Amino acid sequence: NTEGRCKYLSGFGNEFSSEDPRCPGSLPEGQNNPQVCPYGLYAEQLSGSAFTCPRPTNKRSWLYRILPSVRHKPYTAMHCGNLTEKWDEVEPDPNQLRWMPFTIPKSSEKKVDFVTGLHTLCGAGDTKSRNGIGIHMFTCNTSMVDRCFNNSDGDFLIVPQQGEILITTEFGKMMVEPNEICVIQQGMRFSVNVFGETRGYVLEVYGAHFELPDLGPIGANGLANPRDFLTPVAWYEDREVATGYTVINKYQGKLFSSQQVFSPFNVVAWHGNYTPYKYNLDNFMVINCVAFDHADPSIFTVLTAKSSRPGVAMADFVIFPPRWGVADHTFRPPYYHRNCMSEFMGLIKGHYEAKEEGFQPGGGTLHSMMTPHGPDRDCFEKSSTALLKPERVADGTMAFMFESSFSMAVTKWGLETCQRLDKSYYQCWEPLRKHFDPNWRPSKQ
Ligand SMILES: *[C@@H]1O[C@H](CO)[C@@H](O)[C@H](O)[C@H]1NC(C)=O
Ligand SMILES: *[C@@H]1O[C@H](CO)[C@@H](O)[C@H](O)[C@H]1NC(C)=O
Ligand SMILES: *[C@@H]1O[C@H](CO)[C@@H](O)[C@H](O)[C@H]1NC(C)=O
Ligand SMILES: [Fe+2]
Prior knowledge:
There is one protein chain. The chain is mostly beta strands. Helices cover 3% and strands 37% of the residues. The chain starts with 7 loop residues before the first strand and ends in a 28-residue tail after the last helix. Bound molecules: 2-acetamido-2-deoxy-beta-D-glucopyranose (NAG) (3 copies) and fe (ii) ion. Residues 69, 72, 150, 152, 186-187, 247, 249 line the site of one 2-acetamido-2-deoxy-beta-D-glucopyranose. It catalyses: homogentisate + O2 = 4-maleylacetoacetate + H(+). Fe cation binds at residues 337, 343, 373.
């Protein structure tokens, strides 16, 4: 465990500066691109927004590195495994879908690392027009050795579910444990080390970056607070790799590999507001109803990737953390609903309140656009007659949702190859029975 070696800067999207302590003064002072950089480093800008974006959305970082990224052999196409951007592989399926926990490869069978273990489950849109999302599962058992991943298509929001992951990035190292999430933005090279059987979820967005949601009447504090987001500090290795270091580039939905003779994690110092970051979900300040009825689940939004339509997200990352339920004369579980958004849910640990059975950690559900869903029969019956007193909800549990305004297609892997689809899911609502009584009258006080 190398957590002790990982150090972080706190804040969300701030203008950070960091130098590896082994090279004091490596960050140029007073300008970004001096004629000669300290320590003989190369300056390289990584732009995360159009140059002309308004200030609040303008994102870029300057990296000072031993060799520039461009020093690599040409990219050649490589095998994509189960990673895809083909949204018409199988016929559309509007049903409620539920997956049992996705299978993690045993290392005795074959070695699978983070990149080869990526499987696309569903998604929509298009990397070329910069508008869309993909939801992937990763299941792996081996660290990436002399291999890094560079995503030209979009940002990865990574939700580890089983096994901690050590992510080395050009900006430094982050240890990310289940119940934490991290975001690696477009074009940031990273490599993933694992320490056993590892599984998690990835939300990829093309053409937007994750932001903290606006708080409106909530005020200046609450939900995910900026200070709890952690960005790694500069860390470099000056390592030559005679056998070849492989940079894998995801570009227009396909993978390409290129060889170079040195480690890409050669950034000695950097500054800027375009960085990878992580966040511990326990730090989320939960807002909820304290009188009656429900607030909509948008109160649980950690991060949002906005679309160009006001108020409509390409995708929101929403969590259902442990909290108190106190609403009076209210059916407290999530209400029955149909939504103009698509809802993918995953479970990091514990049991989800609206479905005690069937939805397990490491599995998932997809409730597509306007597909009805809600509590199963047991949950409905119990919650309709429960004595309402303040009680803890979701202790020991962390469920989350990727909610999207896209109507997502499920891949062939998701519907067939993975063999984890639970065909009996719809049956959890079959026992719902009628309570209607035409003779019912309001009771006279
Ligand atoms: C796709 O996933 C399946 C099951 O998850 C796996 O057996 C298969 O090897 C993968 N295919 C490729 C090409 O990696
Ligand atoms: C990484 O991706 C960026 C685009 O996001 C691209 O400009 C760059 O050439 C890639 N670099 C390497 C070394 O893969
Ligand atoms: C992969 O899984 C096997 C079996 O559970 C375990 O013994 C091994 O240590 C794991 N490999 C890695 C690299 O964690
Ligand atoms: Fe829902």
